[in-house]
Amino acid sequence: MHEKRDLSPEMCLRLGRLFGTTPQFWMNMQSKVDIWDSLALHEDEVMAIEPIEIAAIA
């Protein structure tokens, strides 16, 4: 919430109840923040990975 710690499943349950949303909504938000933060730290390394091509099955 104040960028100090991750949302726990229990807190997601509480926020879902408080705001009339689902706990999954809050877990998804946390997941997106985690990915965003990780990309900010490792963007050069991730972008250096060459994607593999997968042959189409005919």
Structure in words:
By secondary structure, the protein is mainly α. It is built from two helices and no strands. Helix 1 crosses helix 2. The mean pLDDT is 92.
Task: Give a short overview.
By secondary structure, this protein is an all-alpha fold.
Order of helices and strands: HH
Radius of gyration, in Å, reads: 17 Å
What's the total number of strands? 0
Mean pLDDT metric: 92
Strand portion: under 5%
Q: State the separation between the terminal residues, measured CA to CA.
A: 49 Å
Tags for this entry?
58 residues; 2 helices
Fold topology:
Layout: H1 9-19, H2 23-47
Helix pairs in contact: 1-2
